[in-house]
């Protein structure tokens, strides 16, 4: 068996993360047999932009509830290792756990479930949430109506048929281009635009790595990666961190 790939400490590491990284907090993933879509099919229709504003109670219930689960649990070993390695993060997650772990450079492609915004895209009102249970904005510490324009408020997550946040998307592309090692964690990376970022990164010279305990069999997906590590990210990423620290700090016990 060949030794597992590890980034060299001098290499610029960029990480793209998805739901799998937060799964052990109890936050459900969307796809798959145990995913939220399978468990409550009506939810999927509520996630489409054209269901607004009737879908607001479902959106508050689902996203507020998920954010509360994530916040109560806190970041995982994988989140902490990424933060301590100082790697910039591109994430499909909306739970804020990268920031909670200490990551400062986080591009959130799918928005933030821990913030409320106005349903009117031209209104710039926003506020942090205190996620709880329930299907009203007030249950999560936000007003139901925008204090600026009086429109309904909503969780700041990207719904189907909505544009991704432009700033996060262009930052993600710049990060992919700048990486020496581009690691995809907790997502198969099959959903656009995340699916385009690993190939973009490789085109610009990066080594691409997929870390997934159950990586996709699809050879087309795997072809985007130089290395596929079929192991638990919560073991692989702390191992990478120790490898980096061990190379820069000879006094650190590499097995500690
Ligand atoms: Zn407003």
From TrEMBL:
Its EC number is 2.3.1.286. Keywords: Metal-binding, NAD, Transferase, Zinc. The active site is at residue 110. The keyword NAD applies. It comes from the Bacteria. Gene3D superfamilies: SIR2/SIRT2 'Small Domain, TPP-binding domain. The keyword Chloroplast does not apply. Signal peptide: none annotated. InterPro entries: DHS-like_NAD/FAD-binding_dom, NAD-dep_sirtuin_deacylases, Sirtuin, Sirtuin_cat_small_dom_sf, Ssirtuin_cat_dom. Residues 1-248 form the Deacetylase sirtuin-type domain. Zn(2+) binds at residues 118, 123, 146, 149. PANTHER family: NAD-DEPENDENT PROTEIN DEACYLASE SIRTUIN-5, MITOCHONDRIAL-RELATED. This is protein acetyllysine N-acetyltransferase. It comes from Brachybacterium halotolerans.
